[in-house]
Structure formats: structure tokens, C-alpha cells
Amino acid sequence: MTGTIHSLWTTAADSATPLDKIPTPKIEYAQLSPVLIVFGAAVLGILVEALLPRRSRYIAQLGVSVTGLAAAFAAIVALAADGYASAKSHIAAMGAVAVDGPALFLQGTIVLVALVAAFTFAERRLDPLAHGRRVDSFAAQGSTVPGSEQEKRAVRAGFTTTEVFPLLLFAVGGMMIFPAANDLLTLFVSLEVFSLPLYLLCALARRHRLLSQEAAVKYFLLGAFSSAILLFGVALLYGYAGTISYGGIADVISGTAKMTPALANTTANDSLLLIGGAMVVVGLLFKVAAVPFHMWTPDVYQGAPTPVTGFMAAATKVAAFGALLRLLYVVLPGIRWDWRPVMWGVAIATMVIGAIIAVTQTDVKRLLAYSSIAHAGFILAGVIALSPDGVSSVLFYLAAYSFVTLGAFAVVTLVRDAGGEATHLSRWAGLGRRSPLVAAVFAVFLLAFAGIPLTSGFAGKFAVFKAAAQGGAVPLVIIGVISSAIAAFFYIRVIVLMFFSEPQPGGPSVAVPSALTSTAIAAGVAVTLALGVAPQYFLDLAGKASVFVR
Amino acid sequence: MTLAAGHPGFMSPTGVEIAFVLVGIATLGAALVTVTTKQLVHAALWLVVALGGFAVEYLLLTAEFIAWVQVLIYVGSVVVLLLFGLMLTKAPIGRSPDADSGNGWVALVVAVAAAATLVWVVVDAFRSTWVDLGGAAQGSAKVTGAILFRHWVLPFEALSVLLLAALVGAIVLSKRGAPARRSLLSKSEALPMRGVPSERKARES
Predict the structure, then answer these.
(1) What is the torsional sign of CA A416, A420, A423, A424?
(2) CB count, 10 Å around CB of A82?
(3) What is the DSSP letter of B186?
(4) Is the per-residue pLDDT at A251 higher than 60?
(5) Where are the transmembrane segments (chain B) (predicted)?
(6) What is the pLDDT of residue B178?
(7) Contact A13/B136, CB-based, under 8 Å?
(8) To the nearest whole percent, how much of chain A has pLDDT over 70?
(9) Which of residues 95-154 of B touch A (CB under 8 A)?
(10) Separation CA A437–CA A429 (nearest Å)
(11) Given A93, A153, A197, which is nearest B169 (Cβ)?
(12) Closest chain B residue to A46 measured between Cα atoms?
């Protein structure tokens, strides 16, 4: 706690101090450096877009993005090594963000995910040459009408949308602030900072552009709706506590805050707190795609360009669960008896409905979308544990899950036919005979999703369910295991389809990727196996990083 | 909320209060004309009066910052957007009797219900509370600015990043770069096409 409660009420009350000079706010630039580096790289990317000739932009953008993300990761490691994850953890930037273990762990995960995603964004060897030029997965020009002459002209002219790299970096920066946000205003602003670029990226697919634009509009409308709900919840919580800093609200809830007449008036009735807390949590559950707030997920995952889907599925989940953890563990532990039963219900519904609907899917991207919903349910089981083990298991699960997802969507980009990616499951029949390596890699990811031992999925699920059981949620664990079994059915079904059925004549071909996508997939496989075979080191790391600062 | 010790009469008619009520009546009248007039442009212009009236009310309540925000955002941009919308969609200027959707009565019921709820909530919440406007400044631009640039400096800067991202995104989605020989195109080609491409078929059920 910095000791200052930033309330308009209290600050106005002691405004006897002259306001002619605003005291300089104290900003710990070194501890904010990871976020600042990423935003700096994004701004640099925009300058590249403005100043460099069209031909050299692609290389420059890739260089700026990769360098920036790598530097940000180095800064995070340096901060963690300096003890900011444990002993020196504190609240920085005038109470706006926390620099502590969970924040640094999640920021590190997000930056690594973004680094790998940047490689898949930059892939240019999958599509056939268009007018003698290599093209990536993004529309030549977003404004052209799909299928029009104008679009063909833009492709012929060799336009590319290299702005996706700065947009990616903006999203990453917002995602890095999101789990570290230490007041509700920063939470809301960072939510918008990472959502807006994602809406835009969704609309920029080169193939199936109508689907892509539909996905973007849906995502934007539902996202705006959820932001509004979150903002309303913030207003109600402010009405209850008279402050929007996490520590301040927690103090008011636990009754340790200094009582003033105004505060006594508002805290006499809990309904503001309960409704406000519920609305903020609903806003976050939208972002993690928990049932019943999951409706946007399949459409958006299917319509967005596949590299964007991979990034979004992995990194958004990490950021949103990080924020949810901090909210539930720092702000609302005082009313845990009120929210735990509700979260139980949400977790059960998410696991069961995600797994059951996934069984009926016939499109790979939609299948992975429903699988991500089911996984959100498993992670929620760990969140509900409300113990240090719960935090560390969720951190581990998020790191493991994000790389599996990223790798799986990267493999989806490889299986192609004349119309672009062949995502219908029937087209994947016999893939194992045609290109055993790609099918085997995808099988590894599917086994990790299913939670088979020796993959990261097993270690993650085991940790989460163990924490949940120790937290007294045994029925939840039983339901979780049952829905894992249901989910395993359709993962195994895809594997059987790939390896034990006859290839279709005229089926899709497997594109040979450049080193970029290969690196991404290899990173996914390596992390999946490393976290599966030797999870202990990473579990310890997550365990050390599991204490929230207040 | 600073509660003053004394409790002045509930409706003591000071000059400010009389002005407040008069401006309120004018605002209400402008709002009524806005929704009843048959001419779209007139409706937009009466909306300016109604929203401007709100700004004056805020000023009378010493919330000068909110008053200027109201002028900048609502009077300044929302109404201008509205007028631009009328202009760009080539909506008829003048009386448009066929623009009535026939849902007027439903809208009236909803509006009255919403107004009744709001009035009831405000009256119930602040029944006899007396806020001393002459006390410590709360809504002034000075206090707001000092807090914004001291305590909320990081969210503020993050917002500027958000605006930058939105700007870039808007350009990405709407930019129409001219390929080299744009001028040679016939006019019909340059117009956006309205046909529905076959891509829809690829849509999974």
C-alpha cells in the first residue's frame, strides 16, 4: 500500500494545500520498463509505417517487433532476478500497477507468446504467390469490398497490411498492464487498450473476408457490451467504497478502512458491493470466454486470421485470468462466501458445456474454440481454490495452455487447399498418411489439450485439480475430470481421423512453411514436452511467483 | 460528500436556485420539441439547446469541468456527428411526415417509466441531503486536473496509447491507397460493388 487512497472525496477534503503547482507524480520507470519497451516498439512500428518505403516495411516491422518483445522479456527477467517478484514487490506508478510475482510471471508469459505469435504473423510462404509476390495471412487492403475488382487491384499492386505488427504490440502492451492493474480505472483502460487492436486484427483476414469482418463486428459489439458492464460495475464499487484502488476497496470490505460518515452511509448496504463486484467479474468472464459469456468465441476464432486466433486464444486468456485472479484474491476475498458458489456454477457450466458442444463440431477452428472454453472452466477451478497453490497452479496452467494453443493454431495454418486453409474436419482425414510429421505434431498438441501424461496439459490439469481439491472443491474436481474425459473423446477422434482413415482424393495439401512458422511450432512442441516431462522446475517458479502484493 | 452543519430551508429561493429551475424548464421544453418535431434537422438543433441547458445546469452546480466536457463532447461532437449523418445519408431536409415509425406511444411509455425511475431514485437517495456548493472545490477543472496528472497519470497515458491504436486501426480499415494507374479507371469500377461474393457459402453452419 502506498498509503494514499486516491479518492476524489478525500483529496478534495484536504485541498487546503495549494494546487498552484502539481507535485510531480512518482513513476518507477525501471519497473515499468517491460511495458514501456513494448509501447515504444509499437510507436516505432508506426513510424516505420509512415517513413519507410513499402518494400522494406515488412522486414523492418518484423525486426522492431521481435527486438522489442525480446528486450521486454529481458527486462522482465531482470526485474524478477532483482527480487521484484518476491521481496521487493510493491505498488508502482502512483498506485496504478502492481509489480509482483504473478504480474511478472504473466507478463513474461504474454511476451513470449507474443514473440512466437509475431513469427506466425510474419509467415509468407503458405499462400501461393500472388502476382509474383509472397503474401501473408492478412488482407492486402482492409477497406476493399471482398471479391471486388478493387480488391484484386490492391493485391496486384502488392499492398500488404504491415500495420498488424504495431497493432499486435499495442495489444501486448495492454495485456501486460491488465493483470498488473491495481485499480479499477487502470483495469478498464488496459482492457480497452488490448481489446481494440484485437477487434481490428480480426477483420483483416486475406481469405474468407466476409467471415472475418463478421467476426470482427461480433467481437467488437459483444466486447463493447462487456466493457460497459465492467465499467458500470466499477462505478458501483466506487459508490460503495469511495475509492477504486484495489487495496482501498479491500480495506473497506474488511472493515479496516477509516470510517467516515459518508463511508458509513454507503457501506451500510452491501448490494452496491455485490452487484458492482458481480458486474466487474462478468466483464472479465467475457474475456476468458466462460459460459454463459462464451457466445462470441467460436465465431470469432473461426473468422479471425488464424495467426491472430492463435495469439488471441493464448494471450487474452493469460491476461484476463491474471486480472481475474488479482481481483478475486486482492479485492474481493472478503466476500468470498458470496462469490464462490456463483463461480462454482460458472466453472461447472463452462467445463461441461464447452466439452459437450465441442463433440459436435466439424470445423477445426471451432473445435479448438470450444476446447478453449472447456479449458477456461478447468482454469476457473484453480482460481476458486483461493490458496497460494491455486494461484501457482493457474499460472502454470496458463503458461502451458498458451503455448499448446499457439502451436495448434500454427499447425492449422499449414493445411491448405485452393480456398485457403482447409479447416473442415473431413478434409483432415488421412492427413497422417500424407504428411506424418505435421499430423504427429498436431497429435502432440491434441494430447496436451486432452491432458495425457508426459504433456504439459497433464501437469497443468493435475496441479489445478489438486489445488481445487485441497481448497475443498472435490465435487468440482470430479466434474472436471468427467468433462476432461468427454473432451478427450473428441481430441482422440481427430487423431483417429488423421491416422486411421483413408486420405480423400483431392484433399488439402500441407504447405511447407518458412523458418518462421516452423520456429513457432517447434517452440510449441518444445514447451509442451518440457513442461510435461519436467514440470517441477516451472511449478516451483510459479509457486515462488504466487504472492500478490497489496 | 461534504455535509454542511446547518440545514437551510429545502426550497429557499436563492438566485441560483431560481436560475436552475428556469434553465431546467427550458431544457425540458427543448427536449420535448426534439422528440416531437417533424423535421430532422430541427430535432438536431433543439438537441443542441437541450444539451447546452444541461451544461448550464452543471455550471450552476459548480461542476465547471463536467460542464465543459458536456459542451465539448455532446454539443460539440455528438450533435455534429448527427448532422453529418443527416448530410451524408441525404436525409430529406424539411418536413418528413413519413419518418414516423408508429412506435411513438411505446416510446412515450418507456420514456415516462425511465424518467419516473430516475426521479424516484434521485429523490429517494438525496431526500434531505444538503451539499454545500460553497465548500471545498470538487468539480473544478483545477482539482480534476491535479488529480488526473498526479494519481491517474498512468491510466491517462495508457488512454493516449489507446487513442493512437484506434487511429492506426481506423486508417488500416479505411485507407484506400491508390494503385499506380488509378486515374485510368472508369467511374463504374471505382464505385464499391454491392454484390455478395460466394464466400458466404464457405460459412460453417
Answers:
(1) negative
(2) 12
(3) -
(4) yes
(5) 18-36, 43-61, 67-89, 101-123, 152-173
(6) 58
(7) yes
(8) 96
(9) 136-138, 142-143, 145-147, 149-154
(10) 15
(11) A197
(12) B168
* Chain A contact set for B202 (CB, 8 A): 208, 211, 419
Predicted pLDDT of residue B91: 67
For residues A277, A283, A284, A286, the Cα torsion angle rounded to the nearest 10 degrees is 140
Residues of A in contact with B195 (CB under 8 A): 147
The band of A12, judged by pLDDT with boundaries at 50, 70 and 90, is very low
**Contact by Cβ (8 Å): A432, A498:** yes
Question: Cα angle at A22 between A19 and A24, to 5 degrees?
Answer: 155
Of residues A23 and A75, which shows the higher confidence score?
A75
Q: What architecture is domain B13-139? A: Up-down Bundle (1.20)
- Residue B83 half-sphere exposure, CB side, CA atoms within 13 Å? 13
DSSP codes, A445-502: HHHHHHT-TTSHHHHHHHHHHHHHHHTT-HHHHHHHHHHHHHHHHHHHHHHHHHHHSP
pLDDT in tens, A282-293: 999 999 999 999
Say whether A127 sits in a helix, a strand or coil. Answer: coil
pLDDT tier at A373, thresholds 50, 70, 90: very high
Question: In one letter, which amino acid is A231?
Answer: L
What pLDDT sits at residue A372?
Answer: 95
Reply yes or no on whether the pLDDT at A66 is more than 80.
yes
A57 in reach of chain B (CB within 8 A): no
The answer to whether A177 faces chain B, any CB pair under 8 Å, is yes
Mean pLDDT of successive 10-residue stretches along chain B, which has 205 residues: 48 79 95 88 91 93 88 90 82 70 86 92 76 69 84 92 93 73 42 42 40
- Nearest residue to A34 via CA among A77, A94, A96, A93: A77
Taking the alpha carbons at both ends of chain B, their separation in whole angstroms is 56
Burial A267-299 (b: 16+ CB within 10 A, else e): beeeebbbbbbbbbbbbbbbbbbbbebbebbbb
Residue A10 pLDDT exceeds 60:
no
Residue A444 vs residue B63, higher pLDDT = A444
SS3 content of chain A, % helix, strand, coil (to 5): 70, 5, 25
Q: What is the mean pLDDT of chain A?
A: 91
Residue A530: per-residue pLDDT: 95
> Are A499 and A454 contacting, i.e. CB atoms less than 8 angstroms apart?
no
Between helix A364-384 and helix A388-412 the angle, nearest 10°, is 170
Please give the pLDDT value at position B177.
Answer: 66
* Torsion of the alpha carbons at A162, A164, A165 and A171, rounded to the nearest 10: 170
Burial level of B135, CB count in 10 A (0-12/13-18/19+)? middle
| Domain positions in chain B | 13-139
pTM (predicted TM-score): 0.87
Closest partner CB to A25 (pick from B150, B162, B204): B150
Give phi and psi for A79, each to the nearest 5.
-65, -45
Answer whether A240's CB lies under 8 Å from A255's CB: no
